[in-house]
Amino acid sequence: QVQLVESGGGLVQPGGSLRLSCAASGDIGSINAMGWYRQAPGKERELVAGITRGGSTNYAASMKGRFTISSGNAKNTVYLQMNSLKSEDTAVYYCIAESSRRYWGQGTQVTVSS
To answer: Distance between alpha carbon 111 and the CA centroid of its chain, in Å?
Structure first.
């Protein structure tokens, strides 16, 4: 079992930045990759970015260049640096961990509004 706890969401103005954090606990040795999804009101959940244990990253096309995913030294923490935020980035952001199955965090709200 893996438990995920996200933090760092909040209200930010358009053009601003936020940094999300996700800490994994439990069977962290089984984690092969971590990442972020988001779900905006009335829309399906979508991939934001992912990072493997080896450090390879992938991004959704609309977020590449604005968002950066990274992991902590202990590899049980993942971060999402979000820059140049737009109103359409407003969503609940979920941390995931991939091992024998996918684990989900509880989500953190990001609201981009003036």
So the answer is: 15
